[in-house]
Amino acid sequence: xxxxxxTSEEYNNYTDSGTTLHSGTLYxxxxxxxxxxxxxxxxxxxxxxxxxxxxxxxxxxxxxEGDITTFRAPKGATKIGNQLLYNKSGLVSVILPExxxxxGESAFGSxxxxxxxxxxxxxxxxxxxAFVSTYNITNIExxxxxxxxxxxxxxxxxxxxxxILPDSLTELYAAAFQGCSKCSNLKLSNSLTTIRNNAFNGCxxxxxxxxxxxxxxxxxxxxxxxxxxxxxxxxxxxxxxxxSAFQNCSKxxxxxxxSxxxxxGENCFxxxxxxxSVTLPNDTINxxxxxxxxxNNLPTTDNIRYADTYAVVMVDKNQSTLTFKEGTKYIGSSAxxxxxxxxxxxxxxxxxxxxxxxxxxxxGMLSIELPSTITYIGxxxxxxxxxxxSITIKSTTPPTLGxxxxxxxxxxxVIYVPAESVDTFKAASDWSSYASKIQxxxxx
Length: 444
Known about the structure:
This protein has 444 residues and is mainly beta. 3% of the residues lie in helices and 23% in strands. The termini are far apart.
């Protein structure tokens, strides 16, 4: 069946009257010659026909010929099809009736003139790229029925003023709101467990955020480049903070990492240039390469810049003395690297982890002593310390080794360990390749 309307106004009056559009019926508006709605008798999906075609068109939409300023989905529709009005110029308003449960991929993406979007209380999912680059939207109200927002769904909606996510939302996919640079107010759903890659990357008007206690993981670059962000309250149940998660948040002044966090990713807080206070958990955590690099406002003690118990970097690498403050647990990646003035170092008790490249290229170093508390020696930790001939390890348990921690050291390198642990070290999988170099610590 085909039902025709002479004008868009006639069609709108028909749908506004409460009449339900029938499954299997093609509704046709004559005044633009090509605006067709269809309700599929199987799944109720709203599709667009291309000027008299008998099969619905499901890919690119420069199919609606003529000017359309308002799109009103049929009352019988439950789904909005993929790319329904993708890149449609002149479209100003989208009104979706109650009954619609999902919006397809790229349905209204790159509709640069779109300013008004009305979503129904039945909507549960917004698919990937659904409104990508619709940069004139300033406000959108998400219904309490919504459970999922797809990847890049609102990416580069650069005039969106606020993002209020209902507690019904359980899935927020990668880059969902990336580049929403005018957004100054963000409320996250209390049902989210993961904030995915780039979710709010480049939301450069945010000044504060609260991560709800439901969140256990913040993925890579989630808040990268939020350069007005001054304060962050992290979830008490957080386990993992991904690579570059808060990199280039240049106004951030302090951060407290909750006690349940076990991993901070590479570059996580890199170039947070205002950061002056960091609180790390008491329990040992893994801290990725360059996690606090270029955070030049962090406090310095005895020529070493610290993020709490993490030694970030030796400020003057021409200094020949090396002293770590009491309570230091971690020597950061590249922290002492390429200091050619140091000839020996006694790493104090309490230090547990030496990260990647920490002493790389320290060509004047002849010997080093590691404490009984040491548990990890990272990738390339002493690489190219070409004169390093003696390493003493007081721990009776072989520390975990990264890749090539001693490559490029002196050819006659000797690794001294407690006498009772010589066989244990030689048999350990990380240490077996150094078995010929391992000896008991000499007795006095």
